[in-house]
């Protein structure tokens, strides 16, 4: 689930940080640049683990900041396909489940990857919500909000950044666009699709 990635990056160190120890100052700048950010194909940065080397210190004409090239290691959240992870329920709709790890919320279990057979019913705890219920040997096993949910990673995707339309096109379709935006989800640079359709997956209470 967590891996180490080695990266090299060139950064500016503002003058007000030059009185700090160089390693501490650069680590602070790296944390502001990378912490809680998704790097394409590498995952979500959760920590700057260490700094391997620092080169440079050049001050370019007209710029009071010094420029360094640092080589460092980041701790990344990047689960592999097939990995089993425990999460909590964040959203339950007719389209499936959304799960959360606390520090990462873009985990989705679509309808085809729900445990079979199943049925849905209105969620008594959330208005307009949907509760999913697994049917097994004549018994009903609901997925409740208090449950710890074990899922298997089906895919890990890094969607491309959405491209904005030109002004003319936006003005022409403004009413239609406004209506669509109400249903759009915020852009997620990293999306995990999970599966509950196997023995041992789903709420841990099912298997104790």
UniProtKB/TrEMBL annotation:
Skewed-composition ranges (Basic and acidic residues): 165-185
Residues covered by the RNA polymerase III subunit Rpc25 domain: 83-207
Keywords on record: DNA-directed RNA polymerase, Nucleus, Transcription
Ranges where the RNA polymerase Rpb7-like N-terminal domain occurs: 8-64
An annotated GO BP: DNA-templated transcription initiation
Domain of life: Eukaryota
Compartment(s) of residence: Nucleus
Region (Disordered): 161-188
Any Gene Ontology CC annotation: DNA-directed RNA polymerase complex
Pfam families on file: RNA_pol_Rbc25 (PF08292), SHS2_Rpb7-N (PF03876)
Family statement drawn from the similarity comment of this UniProt entry: Belongs to the eukaryotic RPB7/RPC8 RNA polymerase subunit family.
Function in brief: DNA-dependent RNA polymerase which catalyzes the transcription of DNA into RNA using the four ribonucleoside triphosphates as substrates.
Listed name of the protein: DNA-directed RNA polymerase subunit
